[in-house]
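Students often ask why inverse folding is considered easier than folding. One informal answer: many sequences map to the same fold, so there is more than one right answer. In these notes we will look at a single instance of the problem. The structure comes first.
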C-alpha cells in the first residue's frame, strides 16, 4: 500500500492549480501581454501554456502507453501548439485554467495504485530508460510550479505582490517570533 495515490495526486494538483488561477485573476488584463524579454512567452501565453501542461501525460496515461516510441510526439505537439496559439481574453484564460485543471485532477483521482506502479519505457537515449507512471504524472505539477515561479517574478515586475507572499506576510505579522540572542522573551514580528 502506498500513502500517496490518485486522490492525493489530485488534491495536490488542485492546490497548485488554484494558486495559479489566483495569480491569473489578480494580474490585470492589460498586463497579459507583458513579456520579460522579446523571445519569451507573455503572461497570458504562459498561463495558457500552464493550462495545457498536463496534455502529454493525460494522453500517455489514458491510452495506457507503455513505450514512448508509440507516441506521435510531433502530431501531439502540433495540436498543443495550435491550442496554445489561440487568442484568449483574461476571462477565457482563467476559465481554461479551471476547466483543464479540473479535467486533469479528475483523471488523477481515477488512477489506481497498481496503475501508478507500472513502468513506462522512455524514448531512446533518455535516462533513466524507464519511469513509473506515478513519477510521470507528477511532471505536470512540477512543470506548472516552474512556470508559476516565473509568473510571480512577472507580478513583481508589474508592481504586484504575489498572493502567497502576502499570505506569508500576514501570518508573520500575526505571530510571535522568539529572539534567543540575549533572552528567551518573545517579540511580535516587526517590533524591536
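Output (designed amino acids):
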Amino acid at each position: 500500500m502506498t500513502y500517496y495515490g490518485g486522490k492525493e495526486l489530485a488534491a495536490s494538483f488542485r492546490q497548485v492549480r488554484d494558486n495559479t488561477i489566483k495569480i491569473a485573476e489578480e494580474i490585470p488584463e492589460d498586463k497579459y501581454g507583458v513579456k520579460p524579454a522579446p523571445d519569451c512567452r507573455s503572461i497570458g501565453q504562459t498561463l495558457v501554456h500552464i493550462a495545457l501542461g498536463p496534455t502529454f501525460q493525460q494522453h500517455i496515461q489514458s491510452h495506457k502507453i507503455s513505450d514512448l516510441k508509440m507516441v506521435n510526439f510531433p502530431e501531439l505537439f502540433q495540436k498543443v501548439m495550435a491550442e496554445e496559439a489561440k487568442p484568449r481574453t483574461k476571462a477565457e484564460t482563467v476559465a481554461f485554467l479551471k476547466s483543464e485543471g479540473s479535467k486533469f485532477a479528475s483523471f488523477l483521482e481515477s488512477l489506481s495504485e497498481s496503475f501508478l506502479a507500472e513502468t513506462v519505457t522512455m524514448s531512446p537515449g533518455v535516462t533513466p530508460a524507464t519511469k513509473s507512471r506515478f513519477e510521470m504524472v507528477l511532471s505536470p505539477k512540477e512543470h506548472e510550479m516552474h512556470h508559476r515561479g516565473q509568473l510571480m517574478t512577472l507580478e513583481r515586475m508589474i508592481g504586484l505582490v504575489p498572493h502567497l507572499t502576502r499570505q506569508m506576510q500576514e501570518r508573520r505579522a500575526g505571530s510571535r517570533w522568539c529572539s534567543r540572542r540575549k533572552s528567551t522573551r518573545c517579540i511580535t514580528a516587526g517590533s524591536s
